[in-house]
Amino acid sequence: MAKNTVATLAEMKNNGEKITQLTCYDYSTARLIDEAGINMILVGDSLGMTMLGYSDTLPVTVDDMITYGKSVVRGCESTFVVVDMPFMSYQISPAQALENAGRIMKETGCQAVKLEGGKDMAPQIKAITGAGIPVVGHVGLTPQSVNAFGGFKVQGKGEANARRILEDALAVEEAGAFAITLEAVPPKLAALITKKCRAITIGIGASAACDAQVLVYQDMLGMSGFTPKFCKHFAEVGETMKEAFRAYDSEVKAGAFPAPENTYAKSDCSDEFLAALDAEYEDR
Ligand code: KIV
């Protein structure tokens, strides 16, 4: 399958074709997602919660993103890989943002970086895109600001907030972002932003009006114990995994696994040699 690029993704938007994205954090899952034909992967800083067990994304570091990002890139042939810039890796200045975006792209081999924020982050986005690094913006609910929001809540309620989110999206696009994640944005506002932006809108809890959709893969596979309203379980992989773990536990404890066919019996030495070896180590 041909590689998804900024150009092919923009063409999909222009042709009215929907675009798919899933989060992913490791090589094995990346291969499956790539083989399934998903257009984009986000190595999200949500890995702080899904892979590292933190209660939010704030402790995640650039080194964490590079470790997970590299493994995902190695698993992808055609899927376009975006790596998140973690909390405090870009907010301080455009120079800091460019340095860390460059490091992430150089060391992971990803095709784009993503950062959260609207108008206030436009100088950072300008600096990064000015160096030839494609950027995905992220407006609406921006999880790195969870403490400022007072929780993970729907955004854009009320006219002033709705206007601010549209203006944030336009500022991010103007600064050079080729795509914008819209998180927890009501449907009509998401539709308006999608209509007004040339950039690809990627919705999570932002309705089918967006050009693209993204979900955290553990949520959509029923592996996280977390089913937000906007998510759907496309399979109960968590239950299937637990059943397999229980079956393994029972079979090992019952002596049923490994069975003879699961051993390297054909490579065993002769009985005579093993008897001699046994005798040689009779004190053991
Ligand atoms: O980190 C992440 O997974 C994200 C998605 C929720 C869009 O930013």
What key phrases describe this protein's structure?
single chain; 284 residues; alpha/beta; TIM Barrel; 2 domains; eight-stranded parallel beta barrel; 13% strand; binds 3-methyl-2-oxobutanoic acid
Low-confidence stretches: none
The third-level CATH topology of the largest domain is TIM Barrel
What is the strand content? 5-15%
What is the CATH superfamily label of the largest domain? Phosphoenolpyruvate-binding domains
Bound heterogens, unique: 3-methyl-2-oxobutanoic acid
Topology as a string of helices (H) and strands (E): HEHEHHEHEHEHHEHEEHHH
What structural class do the secondary elements suggest? alpha/beta
Separate helix tally: 12
Strand order of the largest sheet: 1-2-3-4-5-6-7-8
The description of the largest β-sheet is:
8 strands, parallel, barrel
